[in-house]
TrEMBL record:
Residues 262-273 have a biased composition (Acidic residues). Residues 240-273 are annotated as: Disordered. InterPro entries: Competence_DNA_uptake, Metallo-B-lactamas, RibonucZ/Hydroxyglut_hydro. SUPFAM superfamilies: Metallo-hydrolase/oxidoreductase. This is Metallo-beta-lactamase domain-containing protein. It comes from Streptomyces gilvosporeus. Transmembrane segments: none annotated. Residues 53-141 form the Metallo-beta-lactamase domain.
């Protein structure tokens, strides 16, 4: 007797499901899955790991049928950093803590991929955009130690821009460009490379074990530009009521063109980083439906408010299914590391996240840093105002104290806090820490001499945690959040 009801087969398989097959039998339409596993495909158990890489991004998604270390398929979304930090468990007294953390992430990825039913295979590697802190560690994570070959088979390598834009290295001689170029020596283990176009509707990625119905992983944005009716000189309100510069269109949005010689033509010259961020491949993970409710996880890369606006403006588009609007538990990997270029009121109100994850570090950006306190404060207040059910975070038995939240203190004050959250513990100016809030997580969690950690005075460098979000493991709309 299976622990879950026997559903219909996955949408990508038309064969009848045996339902009562033994563990050694294979699904007739999906040989990569056991028949028993496929019999439970109305569930889409997935483990989403937001790795601590400091000022950068690295996310692994593993689809499984109960054990993420014996998964059906896996997707790596970015691997890069401009300024790494150590892992919280390292103690921070060793000058090699950053390198040790990098190695730790590589070994954790290897552990998940080695345990797949189709071992050492990545269904997708998604390089969201050509910003250094999203791609420069991809060779380190994926290549053999001597860099002679890929350690894993990559079924699909998705990216935007050109190979030449991915030519900055970190910890390896090889660059991501070396994987992307047509003549790459790593081609034998890369089955397909694709420059992702802007989707006209959510594009479902073909994954083993990705579920039936709407359940699965979707590309919802890439190479995004504003539509013609959004080209305006009007100031755009920020989430906190102030204004930003006018919106900047780019060429290429389907059905839209900026006429040569028009007054708008000058707006096409974006700063390089802003243009790269607008290219970001954004993903939506959709869980299984139950009573009209589906869980969602949004991975927003470095997309800013212009991309958010394009996405929310799709709400009345009949082709745009599954919809982005909240129907069940919803989780947000905050865009652009919590920068004030992203996560505006319109977007937050549309998806209404239960919890938010921010990949962050201590890299200074001129005289500032991200996430800024002033912007994070408005995000958290708007989240609190939604009065959603409290988020549950499972404590680490080895360190049950909820990790702190880190941000750049551009102004004085403390974050607004739900009634159940512990008291704030801000520390000075610049980067500072506060006591954790269940539902708002930063990967940067420890800094020398700051926070509530009794050992903080002994720290020599900043440290961080990985955050694990598991969805649908115990049925549709169930979740667990842990930190490690």
């Amino acid at each position: 007797m299976h622990p879950f009801p026997t559903p219909s087969h996955s949408a990508s398989c038309a064969l009848p499901c045996p339902g009562t097959a033994g563990p050694s039998e294979r699904c007739p339409g999906r040989p990569s899955l056991s028949a028993a596993c496929c019999a439970r495909r109305t569930f889409v158990p997935a483990e989403v790991i937001f790795f601590n890489v400091g000022q950068g991004d690295c996310t692994l998604i593993v689809f499984h049928d109960g054990n993420p270390y014996n998964g059906d398929s896996a997707v790596l979304v970015d691997a890069g950093s401009k300024k790494e930090v150590g892992h919280a468990a390292s103690g921070g007294t060793d000058t090699t803590a950053k390198a040790e953390n990098r190695k730790r992430v590589k070994e954790k990825i290897a552990g998940y991929l080695g345990g797949l039913k189709n071992p050492n295979t990545l269904d997708y590697v998604v390089v969201t955009h050509p910003d250094v802190d999203h791609y420069n560690l991809i060779p380190y994570m994926l290549l053999e130690d001597d860099e002679s070959a890929l350690k894993y088979t990559v079924n699909n390598l998705l990216y935007v821009g050109t190979p030449a834009e991915h030519n900055t290295k970190r910890a390896t001689k090889a660059t991501t460009r070396d994987l992307l170029i047509p003549t790459s020596k790593y081609n034998p283990k890369i089955k397909k490379k694709e420059v992702v176009a802007s989707p006209t509707k959510p594009r479902r990625l073909d994954l083993a074990g990705s579920g039936s119905g709407d359940a699965g992983l979707y590309v919802i944005a890439a190479n995004t530009v504003c539509t013609k009716n959004e080209v305006t000189d009007a100031k755009k309100p920020r989430i906190d009521g102030t204004t930003s510069a006018r919106r900047i269109p780019l060429a290429g949005w389907p059905g839209t063109a900026v006429p040569a010689g028009s007054d708008d033509e000058e707006e096409l010259d974006l700063p390089a980083e802003a243009e790269d961020n607008r290219k970001s491949i954004c993903l939506m993970l959709v869980g299984a439906a139950d009573g009209g409710k589906e869980q969602r996880v949004f991975l927003m890369a470095d997309a800013g408010h212009e991309v958010e606006d394009v996405l929310t403006d799709k709400r009345n588009n009949a082709r745009w299914t599954p919809k982005l609007k909240r129907t069940g538990n919803t989780w947000l990997k905050v865009g652009h590391h919590g920068s004030d270029t992203a996560t505006y009121a319109k977007w937050l109100d549309h998806i209404t996240p239960d919890g938010m994850f921010i990949s962050s570090g201590t890299l200074p950006f001129g005289v500032s840093g991200i996430p800024k306190f002033s912007h994070l404060k408005t995000i958290v207040q708007r989240w609190i105002d939604k009065k959603l059910p409290p988020v549950v975070v499972a404590p680490d038995p080895a360190n049950p104290l909820l990790p702190d939240i880190a941000y750049y203190g551009d102004t004085a004050g403390d974050l607004p806090r739900p009634k159940a959250a512990p008291a704030a513990a801000s520390e000075g100016a610049y980067y500072r820490l506060e006591g954790g809030i269940k539902g708002v997580a930063t990967t940067l969690t420890r800094m020398p001499g700051k926070g509530r950690d009794k050992d903080s005075k002994a720290l020599k460098i900043s440290l961080g945690h990985d955050w694990h979000l598991a969805i649908d493991a115990k049925g549709p709309n169930t979740y667990s959040i842990t930190y490690k």
